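Memo to structure team: turn this sequence into structure tokens by end of day. - J.P.
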Amino acid sequence: MLWTVFPKSGSLVLELPSGTVHFQSIKLYVRKIMKTTFCQELNRTNAHRPWFDLLQYVPDASRSEAVTSFHLATVHGCHAKHLSRIIISPAPCCPLCDSKDEMDVQHQFLCPALSAEGVCGRYWHASELMGKC
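Reply from structure team:
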């Protein structure tokens, strides 16, 4: 079974093949459809987040940039909010600037205690300062 796309209407129609279709061909086709669907859903749900652009270039990035991108995307970095959720830090408030704001990914971009430039620099500066707290 294969899907045929009609360009004028943009619709998909299920078409039965005239011959036999190998298992490997079907497997590759299903994998391609799943990957496309996953990428579209990922783009749709995360496009408004400021860190989402980082994920687009992870394969081409250095190791520190790739780690930063992953931690920001999964929200499992050295943020007080995450550390308090897993009972490592006593409170989710930012210990660097002594504000009452929760230290999460969004706060990292705005925290006045972080002087490094760029997303990667601010992330590593925050994790270094969090280690000294």
